[in-house]
Amino acid sequence: MTASEQWWSERGRFIVLFGLSAIWLLPVVLLTATSLKTQGQLYEPMRVLPQPVAWENYWTVMVEAFPFARYMLNSLVVSVLSVAGDVLSSAFIAYGFAQLRFPGRRALFLIMLSTMMFPFAVRMIPLFLIFKQLGWINTYYPLIIPSYLGTHAFFIFLLHQFFRGLPKALIESARIDGANELQIWWKVVLPLSKPALAVVAILAFEQSWGDFLSPLLYINDTSKYTLPLGLYSLITGDDVASQWHLVMAGTVTMILPVIIIFALAQRFFVRGITLSGMKG
């Protein structure tokens, strides 16, 4: 390839990536622009950018419209506990599939993977009936406890791929030294798997933080609302149209923690995805 062809190849990749980035950012730009509009500007379809900018929308959402701080704290508690459960349970199950040998291992692994084909909507009614019998309705238990039972097959599969690529000599050495499987998992495997665990933690946080359907299904008390459910309360009143600028302002505020966490952990995320994809 000549220098000219290489130059055009690099510029072509840059143009394609820039275009894809612009397409991805367009909804975010429109979301942010709408969050800064006044109520009157919502009915002007040709106006994309707010003029004047209504910064007070964020104050209204966070202080006046509804108990924003309370709902954010509820979401934070649920998300942190769910992330801890997803990371621990997925890593524990993935280690068993990746490093232990027992009858029916492959069949069980395939059955576990097949659960990814069943969306939450299919399991929604049976789960609700089970949690109702347990007396967990209007509590956070249905939002947290399943995370400790290895319910996310994708997280297990991701860690399974990573664990299979760990040095077998290191694990065998720990066994020769007298360590049991639990000690090997906790003291050897987990410290070596920080990039993959970071990926699972980020994905689990994003999923739990933005979950709307599960809290809507299980939570009745308004004081226990998570942030997505609290934002939904802004558009269920009589004056629906006038609330959209506040809903957008609340949505921008809600997605900021996810963006910040991803920006801080991007190095681990990219490395974990790359390593998990290469092992197998």
UniProtKB/TrEMBL annotation:
Its main location: membrane. It is a multi-pass membrane protein. The keyword Cell membrane applies. SUPFAM superfamilies: MetI-like (SSF161098). The keyword Transmembrane applies. The chain crosses the membrane at residues 12-36, 71-95, 107-131, 143-163, 184-205, 244-265. It holds the Pfam family BPD_transp_1. GO terms for cellular component: plasma membrane. GO terms for biological process: transmembrane transport. The complex is composed of two ATP-binding proteins (UgpC), two transmembrane proteins (UgpA and UgpE) and a solute-binding protein (UgpB). Part of the ABC transporter complex UgpBAEC involved in sn-glycerol-3-phosphate (G3P) import. Probably responsible for the translocation of the substrate across the membrane. Belongs to the binding-protein-dependent transport system permease family. This is sn-glycerol-3-phosphate transport system permease protein UgpE. The gene is ugpE.
